[in-house]
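so i finally got all the pieces together for this one. its two components total, 700 residues if u count the protein bits. some of the lines might not be protein, just check the labels. i wanna see the whole assembly predicted at once instead of chain by chain like last time, that was a mess tbh
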Amino acid sequence: MNATVEKRSKPRVAVHKFSSCDGCQLAFLNLGEDLLTLAERVDLVHFAEAGPLDPDAEVDISFVEGSVSTPEDLERIHHIRAHSRLVIAIGACATSGGIQGLRNGVFDEQWVTQIYSHPEAIASLESSTPISSHVKVDFELWGCPINSQQMLAAVNALLLGVAPRDNADKVCTECKRSGTPCVMVTRGIACMGPVTRAGCGALCPGLGRDCYGCYGPAENANTAALAAQFSRQGLARLAVAQRFELINSQAPAFLAAADKLRTGGHD
Amino acid sequence: MTEQKRTVAIHVPVLARVEGEGALDLRIDDGDITQLRLRIFEPPRFFEKFLEGRHYTDIPDMVARICGICPVAYQVTAAQALEKLFGIELSPWARDMRRVFYCGEWIQSHSLHIHLLAAPDFFGCGNAIELARLAPEEVRRGLRLQALGNELMDLFGARSVHPVGVRVGGFHGAPSADRIDAVRQKLRAALPEAEALIRWAAAIPLPPDDQTFVSVGMRHPDRYAIETGDIAASDGLLIGADAFDVHFAEQHEPHSTALFSSYHGQPYLVGPLARLNLNRDRLPGSVNTLLAEIGFALPSRNIFQSLLARAVEILLALQEALRLLDGYQVPDSPWVPVTPRAGVATGCTEAPRGLLWHRYEMDDDGRVVNARIVPPTSQNQGRIEEDLRLSLLAFGLDHPDDTLRLHCEKVIRNYDPCISCATHFLNLNVERT
């Protein structure tokens, strides 16, 4: 598929939501006056939180927030794919299954009965999975949450007729560019920056704290070396595993790293 | 219509402009409401379960993910509960800046709700983009206030959605005095804008409404309760966070994935209007003068005044942030060291949508044994159903379905329900016989 939008009348855009916290939709709703400008450049045909409702409309671009976590979600994502020229998954939930992916592999029916007194009324899949597990995804914006710049850059690229740029570099590169002292080297903090995808602007090291991996794995992430480094810094095996098991626990690189630690694969 | 012995069943996607997925089942038999249920089918995310076994240092980053619109409320409530258990005394700087940070979230969330979610209802518009054609200056003013709220959150959290600055014991970092100076100028410039917003909101014609309900919210001995205080009810209750369970109960109804809360067996109201009803005497004098001038009488029994209540709290939050940032100095350390201990931690704060209560049982190593979180929207759920019933009866049932649906939406949006976690639909099923 040609990953761009034809230059014709205003592109038709939908924003859909699955299991999530709504935070990535704020990349739109926090735009301020730019939101009004965006509404002039594209035709927002479906964006329930903002008002427009037309979930069945044929659209050029569907932004999809959230993970697939209920039987109904499964049907809906296929429906959206069938009616969208491009599907863009936004945020950790849509790209890796999100924080609720922490239930995958450990989900127990008792969880439902412990919280709900009518468990038969709760429809929930055992796993929380990313959009790409179910349908073809044309582009992914990683991050928990994504920010407005990421979203606008993608929209602008598509409006110009080019594919959005994918930055899978590491957070470390952002610290270097901004001149932020390395928190791991200078203060011995167990930072996930060396294996985490750039895009946030290295916010956490900027505050003097550890990156906790909310943008997901970077390309060629050397998780084994980082896990070994965390061990040398004095973190117990479980604590090292939990570093990979947070916001993007189901992203393949982080999942494999944590599994290895839990089964004794790392030193 | 009531004389017609027929059944009308309509399935209409309705409630846009709320945060979450809900449906309303309404059945009318012979002119009477025989069924009225607000159904919430937010997919459960099981936060309480996967918090188990996590170290206390992870909690603020994890609970933020419950809500993209009010992450500060979750972070601050969790930190406050754990600090109490661990016997931590925050530095005066951190105590004040927690309140400033929280004010940012109120300004952001309230501005978003007023302009993007609720106000279009009162002007016959489908959404804020339509409203912006009708009232461009007012919508732009609202978006500026929302941006300023985000900027305050950004100061302490580096971003406004899932900020990264809160840690148990204080903050990870402190903003520079230069950044604070720049924001203070914007806060000062925003004061007249917030006043104008209040006057604009007060001039919106509201449906008449007069209902009896219990207001529940926090009270502080000398301030308008935001990030700290006790739990109060309009019938005179005043308790600490640790006694919440004695007076409030949660139960599961099969039609909802959010638990219903009750106070001594009754529904109750939380949120901006409940807070104002309980805390008029904690408002600054200038705000009270303005309220008298515009004729906003408290306590209010008209839930449609919730939009105005949010506008009032925006002004209050701007004033509070300015007051607390006066004479700002970068502290020696933005946090104090923490040593965990085992026990039960409870805490509460006033999230933008109302009382938020957390309870954590912790082990000796500072790991979670179990967790419970009671968010504002589940507390309001029973009250929304009760309100809809009374409000529809007062409105009259002999209206076309679309008119009934719009009225229901307006009522529901007063509560700014945050059903975060699903598609944002309210499907209204009206059945008439």
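Chain A is about 35% helix and 10% strand.
Chain A has two domains: 12-160, 171-262.
anyway lmk what u think
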